[in-house]
Amino acid sequence: MAENTVEGTASPTRRNVLRIEDLAIDYRQGFGRTFRAVQGITLDIAPGETVGLVGESGSGKSTIGNAVLGLQPPAEGSVQVLGEDVALRGRRSHEPGPVQVVLQNPYRAFNPFKSIAWSLLEPLTAAGGGAKPGRDGLVSAALAGVGLDPSYARRYPRELSGGQLQRVAIARSLISDPALIVCDEPVSSLDASVCGQVLNLLTAKQRERELAYLFISHDMNVVRLMCDRVYVLYRGRIVEQGSTEKVFADPQHEYTRKLIAAIPDRAESLRQRAANAV
Ligand SMILES: Nc1ncnc2c1ncn2[C@@H]1O[C@H](COP(=O)(O)OP(=O)(O)OP(=O)(O)O)[C@@H](O)[C@H]1O
Ligand SMILES: [Mg+2]
Q1: What region, left, alpha or beta, does residue 77 occupy, with left being phi > 0 and alpha being psi -120 to 50 degrees?
Q2: In whole angstroms, what is the distance from residue 150 CA to residue 144 CA?
Q3: What digits encode the pLDDT tens for the residues 167-207?
Q4: Residue nearest to atom 27 of ligand 1 (CA)
Q5: Is the terminal CB of the chain with fewer CB neighbours within 10 Å at N or C?
Q6: For ligand 1, is residue 57 a contact (CB within 6 Å)?
Q7: Which residues are registered as beta bridge partners of 267?
Q8: What DSSP designation does 265 have?
């Protein structure tokens, strides 16, 4: 695990990209009642690291992802990205944030009435960048970077396959050069044949820059393939954490053991698919 300080001084190179401390998130339920979705979450991610967040449906994975994106205010605790509180940063909107997102269903993640070029530039224009000269080149480069022809810029989301559109979603998440990407079930809605390609693309992009991923998934095979470390979430609390290797080889919590026992033996085929994918 990365150190926050070296000999007592803050080191920008070693500092965590993400630091969540004792986080609790509440949802309003009406009549003044609240529902505490997650509680006591402490989690960190170092530059270049992929950290998995696993757990059954409703365990609070997306809630934590949304808190990292600044979309859910903490009821307790804090979320810091690059040493800055997310809740405070959200109020300054003149530059794209250091956290971007790739969601499960790419068709829901894009405005169906806007071209791919428009959507790709959205993180920059939303931050107040506006249309600037040279942005055509940026769009072409972004598409080429995820293996798509520049002519896709003129298309609309419905004119792309799910796998192609997820590539565009990855390109969009990269366009503002973030430090961290929240990947919330990034391959769960994709056909198995393109799943390996998209995972490969994420790995390649991480190597190009010191990009960190918070990788949310209920698919333990994908987590095993992608993640350096794993946090296991059960009913809104972290019940286990550690290196992927250790958690899979020697799970300590009963719930983790159940998750691992339920894995269909797909890991090898997924690895092979990733190796064969372009
Ligand atoms: N906007 C909301 N308002 C009220 N309750 C919510 C809201 N969003 C999520 N919840 C509740 O919070 C809990 C955690 O939900 P969350 O979406 O974080 O789970 P998840 O682990 O991402 O599940 P899945 O694997 O199905 O995506 C669930 O009980 C859910 O019903
Ligand atoms: Mg979710």
Answers
A1: left
A2: 7
A3: 999 999 999 999 999 999 999 989 888 999 999 999 999 99
A4: 57
A5: C
A6: yes
A7: none
A8: S
Strand partners, 23: 41
Q: Is the CB of 106 under 6 A from ligand 1?
A: no
User: The CATH number of 15-98+178-276 is which of 3.50.50.60, 3.40.1700.10, 3.40.50.300, 3.40.50.720?
Assistant: 3.40.50.300
- Find out whether 117 and 139 touch, Cβ atoms under 8 Å: yes
Query: pLDDT tens digits, residue range 130-153?
Result: 556 567 789 999 999 999 999 999
| Torsion of Cα atoms, 126 then 21 then 214 then 242, to 10° | 170
Residue 36 CA to residue 268 CA, distance in Å, equals 38
Q: Give the integer Cα–Cα distance in Å for 70 and 81.
A: 10
d(CA 96, CA 192) in angstroms, rounded, equals 33
Closest ligand to residue 56's CA: 1
8 A C-beta contact, residue 142 and residue 175: yes
Among 4-8, 50-54, 214-218, which stretch is predicted with the lowest mean pLDDT? 4-8
Q: What is the mean pLDDT of the chain?
A: 88
Q: What is the dihedral of CA 100, 106, 110, 116, to 10 degrees?
A: 90
The ligand placed nearest to the CA atom of residue 57 is 1
Query: Is the beta carbon of 90 within 6 A of some atom in ligand 1?
Result: no
Q: Average pLDDT in the 232-258 region? A: 97
| Ligand 1 mutation pick, 27, 104, 232, max ligand atoms within 8 A of CB | 27
- Distance between Cα 91 and ligand 2 center (Å): 25
Residue showing tokens 């070296």: 6
Q: Whose CA is nearest to atom 1 of ligand 1?
A: 27
Query: What is the residue extent of each domain of the chain?
Result: 15-98+178-276, 110-176
Q: Which candidate, 154, 157, 143, 148, places its Cα nearest to that of 107? A: 157
